[in-house]
Glycerol-3-phosphate dehydrogenase [NAD(P)+]
Amino acid sequence: MKYCVLGSGSWGTAFSNMLHNNGKSVILWARRKEICKKINEEKFSPYLPQTNINVFCSTDLNECISYSDVIIIAIPVQHLRNILKQIDKHKIDSKIILNLSKGIEISTGKRVSEIIYEFFDNVSYAVLSGPSHAEEVVQKIPTAVTIAGEYAESLQKDISNDFFRVYTSSDVTGVELAGALKNIMAIAAGILDGLGNWDNAKAALMTRALYEMIKFGKAFGAKHETFMGLSGIGDLMVTCNSKHSRNRWLGEQIAKGKNIKEILSQTRMIAEGMYTVDAVMKIAKRLKIDMPISKEVYEIIYRGKTPKESMISLMSRPLKNEWYV
Ligand SMILES: NC(=O)C1=CN([C@@H]2O[C@H](COP(=O)(O)OP(=O)(O)OC[C@H]3O[C@@H](n4cnc5c(N)ncnc54)[C@H](OP(=O)(O)O)[C@@H]3O)[C@@H](O)[C@H]2O)C=CC1
Ligand SMILES: O=C(CO)COP(=O)(O)O
């Protein structure tokens, strides 16, 4: 199968480079000409400056689609719709779309599969997610992830190699939601890290975060076991603890007293959780799902609540059974 990867940020670049090294035919699509030029002429990406990038890059979106059997999405979710609008429907007809992005669209509350099917009715869809920081994948550090959806077994074979191990799952909704929700929780973890390196608090936060993710997922028919796997607790652990996580970093900066505008001006990278939390709070309100950690992340980012005030709010909630619904 031939592949194109849409999105030349850190993950799209790392993933396409890995597929190229697997011996697959791959094109990376970038929206900016200067990125393509650097990758093609200097084997350099500003998103992964320590690594040689050997994959071919193009800025011609529809040419990339025509060339490929599998179209891989690595575009921040709030910008995905705008890119999909530019794709010629006939060129993508009956192809496979594999999503790597982790988020929920604010304007519609949709997961990536739902956005894709709104545009293209005759495509096959799969999602790949799990603990997989691009910075480690380009260094060939052992990584394991989950893939769910159509052609999962064929994709699993093409993508896996001696350092990147792909497991299959049948739960597309769960894999999508777990990947989106853990980004919110990583912001909360970063806020805690910025306040103090507190082991008890971090363990409590991650455990209650997982329960919150499961409650939300179940409202959409996601399987409990998915949240116990690589795309659930696995990705939650890595994102809440990793020095590479942009979501955790964003939280840490907030706790240091910086305002959001100032933090965003420091990087071109995307912390998806900052946007997903807006979508999740709208959905949770509508469906009456209690999401205390997400609510505090939302209040801090969008309402100016201080991290200390949020911590007090969380700790002074009415006492209850650990597994309340
Ligand atoms: N980084 C990682 O380790 C992992 C990331 N992911 C997920 O992959 C997805 C892509 O993230 P990642 O590769 O990390 O991106 P990065 O944060 O590394 O880079 C930002 C990307 O967003 C693009 N972008 C910024 N503004 C726009 C816009 N207005 N329209 C379209 N694209 C825009 C940038 O394009 P440009 O350079 O042209 O500005 C760039 O490709 C996210 O959903 C993320 O959660 C999943 C697993 C691992
Ligand atoms: O999803 C990721 C790792 O699995 C990347 O997380 P960040 O976007 O927080 O860097």
The longest strand covers residues 143-149. The longest helix spans residues 172-195. The radius of gyration is 19 Å.
